[in-house]
Amino acid sequence: MAVVGIVPAAGSGERLGASGPKAFVACAGRPLIDWSLEVLAAVCDRVVVAVPPGYEDGDDRVVGGRHRSQSVRAALEAAPEATVAVVHDAARPFLTVALVERCVAQVRAGWDGAVAAAPMTDTVKEAGPDGRVLRTLDRSTLWAIQTPQVFAADALRQALAVPDRVLAGATDDASLVEAAGGSVRVVEAPPENVKVTWPADLRAAEAVLRARAAV
Ligand code: C5P
Description:
Layout: E1 3-8, E2 26-27, E3 30-31, H1 32-43, E4 46-51, E5 61-63, H2 68-77, E6 84-87, H3 97-108, E7 113-119, E8 125-127, E9 133-136, E10 143-152, H4 153-160, H5 164-168, H6 174-179, E11 184-188, H7 199-214
Parallel strand pairs: 1-4, 1-6, 4-5, 7-11
Antiparallel strand pairs: 2-3, 6-10, 7-10, 8-9
Bound molecules: cytidine-5'-monophosphate.
């Protein structure tokens, strides 16, 4: 069984307002992506990173696509030996070996996909374009979906074999596996498994990572 890490890191990170791509901004003394790569290297046989054009120097780097799932597809195509794919966003630096292993275990147990997730703590409402609330959802069954997302690699390959316009609309890879008929389950993640999106997220992540390094 070849467990391969797939890291989409080809986003521009416009919301972060940095001068370069988000995955490569400095975070607590190293590029943001390195926090995740260190953990993935401990669990995976190999890690393939999808990077923006100009960042492809180095082992196991491929140029990503215009949309996130196109980047995932490009990286997975570079790892034909993968039987289990561990997809993880470069923007989540608090990944842990334990969380990856819990997701991998679920795929080994027969699920097509196992995704890190947090139970919703906010009330969630659906609103129309004018702001009018249309309905309030039952929070007790709702999960906010994160990465890592671990898949039986063939199930992910099949799910990604769709037109680019379908990939463009996908905000995660599990939704593509679900649409292809695959079985996907949630795995509760530690509360700190947050994504760096805004400048304030980066400052908060730096503070936590530096505090951790100091103990
Ligand atoms: O923009 P967002 O934070 O949702 O991106 C999630 C991850 O997908 C990031 O690590 C980003 O670098 C990656 N991505 C990518 N290719 C794209 C867009 C985003 O690899 N075209």
